[in-house]
Amino acid sequence: MAAALVPPPQFRDASFASYRPDADYPSQASVRDAVEAFVTAGGGGAAPRRGLFGRRRGPSSDTTAKSGVYLDGGFGVGKTHLLAAAYHAATGRKTFGTFIEYTALVGALGFQGTVDLLRGTALVCIDEFELDDPGDTMVMTRLIKELSETGTRFAATSNTPPGALGEGRFAAQDFLREIQAMSDRFDTMRIDGLDFRRRAVDESAGVVADVAAALPSGHVTLDDFRAVVAHLASVHPSKYVAMVDDLDAVGLTEVQPFTDQTDALRWVALVDRLYDAQVRIVASGTPLDRVYPDTMLDGGYRKKYLRAASRVVALTRAVD
Questions:
Q1: Which of 24, 161, 216, 299 is the most exposed place for a label (fewest CB within 10 A)?
Q2: Residue 241 pLDDT > 90, yes or no?
C-alpha cells in the first residue's frame, strides 16, 4: 500500500530546478531553497521562519534539527510542485500522498498498522494537510509524532481555512495542547504569490453549449452535475481517487451553484483528485469557478473553494 503513495503523474518530473519562482515574490525562491536544503542537508532553511503558531523566529543559536517543513500559502503558488520535488530529491524510503490518502490508510490498517507500515520511511510528504476535521487532524498529529520519534522526517503543504484559523498558522487553538509537543520540530514556510493557473485575473472556467459533442475521444463520462454531487454523498472521499482513475475527461451538464456546504466540500475533494490526475472537465451551465455563493466564500473554507475554482479553470481550459 505504501508503494502506491507517489506524486501524481503531472508531478512525475517535478524538481527544484524546474520550479519557476516569481521574481515579484521573493518568498518563492527563498522557500524553494529552504526546502531543498532541508531535504539534501537534513536541516531547515537558512532564512528566519514563522513559528508554527504565528510567532516570528529571528536568528537563533538553536541547532536542533527540524523533523519537518510545512509550506503554507495561497493556491497556485507551487506548493505541491515543491513537495513533489522534495520527494524526488530525497534518498531512502519515501512516500507522497494527500492528507485524505493517509487518513484512509489509517482507516484501512488501523493506527498501529499504519505506524508499522511507515516506520523506517525517511521522508513522508503530506499534500493538502487538513485542519478543519479535529478527529482526522489528531490522528495525523499522533502519526507524525510516532514516526518522527523514530527518525522519519516530514514535508507538508497547508490547507488552513484562514477565516477559521488565521492565515499562516499550523493549527487552531483547540488543537494546540495535543500537538504542542511536536510543533517545535517543524518550520512553517510562507509562500506568497499569484495563482499561476489563471492567465488573466478575469478568466473563468470554460463552458460549452453541447457537452456530449465537446467531449474528446477516450475514456470519458457524461452526467448531470446534480447527480454527480448526490453520488459523492454515498462515497467516502478516500475512494474518489479510484473514481477518476484512467479517465480522460468528465462531462457535466447543467452545473448549478451550491446551496449546501457539505456538497460543496465533497465537490472540492473530487476536483482535487481530478486535478491530480489531470482529467479534463467539459461542462455546461454555471462556470465551475462560480458555484460557491458569497456566504460560503466568506466562511472558514474560503481557501478550499478558491483553490478548487483555480483548478477547474485549468481543467476546463482545453475547451475554450
A1: 24
A2: no
Beta carbons within 10 angstroms of residue 27's beta carbon: 18
- Calculate mean pLDDT across residues 154-170: 56
In the predicted model, is pLDDT for residue 168 greater than 70?
no
Cell 503558531 belongs to 53
For the chain, first and last CA: distance in Å? 39
Single-letter code of the amino acid located at 79:
K
Q: What is the pLDDT of residue 153?
A: 93
Indicate whether 85 pLDDT > 80: yes
Of 101, 225, 228, 93, nearest to 156 by C-alpha is 101
**DSSP helix/strand/coil, 223:** strand
Answer yes or no: is pLDDT of 266 > 80.
yes
Q: Which residues contact 62 (CB under 8 A, 6 or more apart)?
A: none
Angle 230-276-119 (CA atoms, 0-180°, nearest 5)?
105
The dihedrals phi and psi of 52, each to the nearest 5 degrees, come to -60, -30
Alpha-carbon distance of 210 to 240, in angstroms, equals 26
Q: Cβ(97)–Cβ(143) under 8 Å?
A: no
- Provide, rounded to the nearest whole percent, the portion of the chain with pLDDT above 70: 78
CA angle at residue 60 from 59 to 62, to 5 degrees? 150
